[in-house]
Amino acid sequence: MTVSQLRWGFLALLVFSSFSHVFAQDAQPDNRPPAVQIIVPDEDRFTPFAITVRVGQPVVWINHDTDDHTVVSNDAFNTAGHRGLNFLLKANGGKLVLVFKHPGMFPFFCRFHSVLDADHQPKAPGPDGGIQDSNGNFGTPMNGVITVLGDD
User: Fold this and answer.
1) Residue 28: its pLDDT value, please?
2) Which of 30, 50, 53, 76 could lock onto 120 through a cystine, CB 3.0 to 4.6 A?
3) Is residue 21 within a helix (H) or strand (E), and if so which, with residue range?
4) Which helix (H) or strand (E) holds 148?
5) For the chain, which residues score pLDDT lower than 70?
6) CA–CA gap between residue 103 and residue 116 (Å, rounded)
7) Are 48 and 36 in contact (CB under 8 A)?
8) How high is the pLDDT of residue 134?
């Protein structure tokens, strides 16, 4: 083997080991908890209705319906942060990702399919702007709740 061949071999080994180190780092799992999804199926509801996550765990809303919906925080009972949230989930794939920084409760509703009564409880919108079916029913309020646990 000549000195030139040794140099090229060493250079190739160095490049290979650098790339394998980079790819090995990318393959290592991180310590972040997996995201939890709340889906709007092709009807007016959030599923699941209630979830429990840990501080720092992402929550992803995905709208699979053909109608727009919203995620609005019910601030009368919201103790988990993101107060004042009023986010439009666009039809056919709209997404929202939230990460909670401290424990608490995050009740939410769709402002198109729920209104808050005098006690700040979600109810179906009724004749003043609600969506009515052929039987005159305004349906159930579209809402949900997230319990955020500490990271202990």
Assistant:
1) 42
2) 76
3) helix 3-27
4) strand 143-149
5) 1-30, 125-133, 136-139
6) 24
7) no
8) 74
How is the beta sheet containing 94-99 ordered, strand by strand? 36-40, 58-63, 94-99
Question: Domain 36-149, what architecture?
Answer: Sandwich (2.60)
Measured distance CA(114)–CA(123) in Å, rounded: 5
- Residue 116 is predicted with a pLDDT of 80
**Six token digits for residue 130:** 């609600």
Q: Are 94 and 121 in contact (CB under 8 A)?
A: no
Question: What are the sequence ranges of the domains in the chain?
Answer: 1-30, 36-149
Query: What is the spatial distance between Cα 80 and Cα 101, in angstroms, rounded to a whole number?
Result: 8
Q: Which two tokens stand for residue 55?
A: 């501080």
Return d(Cα 35, Cα 62) in angstroms, integer: 12
Whole-model pTM: value is 0.72
Whether the Cβ atoms of residue 24 and residue 120 lie closer than 8 Å to each other? no
Tokens of 88: 């439009």
